[in-house]
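Lab notebook, page 48
Experiment: co-folding of the full assembly
Goal: obtain a model of how the components sit together before planning crosslinking
Operator: M.T.
Materials (sequences as entered):
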Amino acid sequence: MYRRLFSVLAVGALIVGACSSSTPSKKIVLAEWQYPDTVNPYLAQAETDIEVAGSMFHNLVDVTPDLRTIPTLVTEVPTLANNDVKMVGAGMDVTWKLKSGMQWSDGSAITCDDLSGTWKWIMDPDNTGLAGGTIGWEDVTGIDGGSGTTCTMHFGKVYEGYLYLVAPLLPAKYIQSIAVKDAPTKLYPMGDLKSGVYDGPYIPTEAQADAQITTVANSKWSTISGHAPYVDQVIWKYYADAATMLQGYKAGEYDVAQDLNDADIPSLAGIDLNEQVIHDSLTYELHQFNNKALSDKFGADYKTIIKAVKLATDRQAIAAGPLGGNVSVTNNYISPLTWYYKVEGGSTAADPKAATALLTAAGWALGSDGYLAKAGKTLELEYCTTTRQVRQDTLKLVASQLKAIGIKANVTAAPSGDVFGGWDAVKADTKCNLVHGTFDVAEFAYVSPLDPLGGYNVYTTQGIPDAAPHNGQNTARISLPALDDAYNAVKNSVDPAVVKAAMGTIQDIYVTDQNTYELPLYMRKDVWLVKPRIHNFTGNPTTSAGEWNIGDWTAD
Amino acid sequence: MIKYVVRRMIQAIPVLFLITVFTFLLMHVQGDPTQRFAQNARVSQAQIAAFEHRWGLDDPLPIQYCKWLGVCGDKPIVVNALPQALGGGDNGILHGDFGYSVFDGRLVTDIIAQRMLPTLILTVTAYLIWVTIAILAGVYAAVKRYSLFDSGLTIFNYVGYSLPTFWLGLMLITFLSVPPLRWFPASGMNDPYTTPAFGTNSYWAFFGQNPFFAIFDLGRHLVLPVLTLVTVSIAGDSRFVRSSMLDSLSQDYVKTARAKGLPERRVILRHALRNALLPVITNIGLEIPFLFSGAIVTETIFAWPGMGRQFIESVGHTDYPVLMGILLIAAVSIVFANLLADILYAVVDPRVKYD
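Observation: model returned without errors.
Model output:
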């Protein structure tokens, strides 16, 4: 009798205890399916790293979802027009006017010393693993301004990409307190994030690896934005994969789902359309043609073959098939949102008859095996991609499309480390490696460059990685004087009119037969799920991710 | 008995040594930690070489193993292997130093310590439940052989045994976490809206102030992962208990007990069950290592931040010091679980003598 009574009382106490817990202050919970490796934006490689860092740090300028550049830590965006960019001999000076009175999370002032400290830290030879390398920073010859807020950045040569170079600003005093060689493990250490110094709206307080990172409103953030963050706590909850993360959303476990893309769209069934935020991404899927490999294989015919393959590849069928109709086919690799985008004509429809006519005219004839051949050589191409299922499905479809016109396409799905491995990181004969050029055609994705100069290393002769130091990204090995000239014009000018005209030329070349380097397939999608209680979420197609304005989010 | 235990512990030393050699080799076949730079074309060979040198990855493999073990060091070999108090070194497994993660530079012991409690909470809870249910169900099924319960248990066991853990976990989430039922949380150890992250200082402070709520919240989060583990684990043990019990029930001493007129309950519990549990103890004892090594699939599906999930993360990062630490714990627990099972066998069955 007493035992039963005690049990009832114990259960009752448990329920009362459970229900009587006080309701905490306003908080929002964001979900990701990968725990970050780092919050240091200069070491961040994965989307999840960039997202969480995006709430803790600020760039000097930000890019809005409609790709306008706006000042964040500065009072104005430096341009030639406002005289904050001046050409000096072969170089240039950029003046960054920091907002006055801004403070880091430890209460210290944000000054030009931080800009200078960031530059020195990046250029330190002991710095390993910088995700973006030192491009642009290498051209900086000095930064003036000291403990003031008007900073002059001296460039030894014209660097068109100066606007997005400082992404983000780091606190000099803090980064100097840790030996640069120890930065990957001791600067903003994942085991003690609280020890770091930040300027973003939310700063970390605690973390449980693989499960949760708790951040709280940065009390000093109002010195930057003029108001405090509207939410007291932002909690990052981590799942093991996108599928369970989506189930967690349906179960009401968090407010915002991140890091989803077009492949996840079919899994969103049952979720209110008003909660689905789906944008065109800046990332586009492409087929890259290795001009050197194809030229070695087919001699003078290689350009005709590439043109025929481009004509025979039915991109509409790819979009409707493996992609489930969730993406749109594109002809241009430049996003229509960029200020230098040029509207180009041209059809995205396939034309296998025209492809056959081209090859027939070049002397290729169908053999008894059903494949085209010339002088005893079969028209056979080695297609490569990563193990991502949708890519494998796409290439399977493309192989069938090419077979219909007599081209034999062999498809290899290689580990992404093999495909994207650097010159020294993989063996020279690793199959499907882009840098070593061990492929004929490769499917992967590029980010459409926001900075016009972003394509310089990808499309100019100088970027061909076969030459030392092998860090070029022109893995198509394309060398077109007209393209080189246009990119050099972009590189050597900060005049928007000149840059826009040169980028127009580059886009003209891209849609003509001169483009033997790539076939754009479709623009990918960025997908977020956002509960109705969250306001001011806009998403952002740039690498700033959806957190670019997290300090302005509100919650019911 | 003491002599036997000492002998078994001495025998365990070469076994553990061979296990560490084998797993160390296996780790290095799997890849090397510099793979993290493979997709970053801007990292130079010099930077990769500097990374390898800092972590001792440029040493020949035997030297790397020797250092990990704590035999090789700055001092002459034999002296370094001795305890520090006797002039030996202070690093390497022999000195209790598991080294540092080559991925994030944290102490391996810190990483394992942080992951051990979540794993123990999950696995011990599941283990106690499934062992209890398996014994009770197995005994009842044997006593009521060919009854409806026995047939039902057999079907449940076959289904449970056949279900892939990841599928069962996802189904449980789909039916019990998402609307319309929404009975239990789908992931994690705590509700981030109401409770600080488990294991953090804030959590323990919160636990001190709201113990009932914290336990209630943790309990809710435990339901689905525990249910998954119990469902897939109960089958083997209950079949084992049933068969052992059937064997026991057919023995002469049970017939004698019945012939003496003892109540059926006493015959089953005192005479049959006690003997039937002997092989069961060995079986259950051998499952103990699972408590420490974690449940990789279940922890992954339910985002449970335990040892199993750490293992997967470390495999992804080719973080071999952490992997070696986890595997060493698993190996030691297997060796000692075997020993424990043998000792318990002797305790329960007076006929068993080891000396």
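Interpretation: The CA atoms of residues 15 and 21 of chain A lie 10 Å apart.
Next step: discuss with group before ordering constructs.
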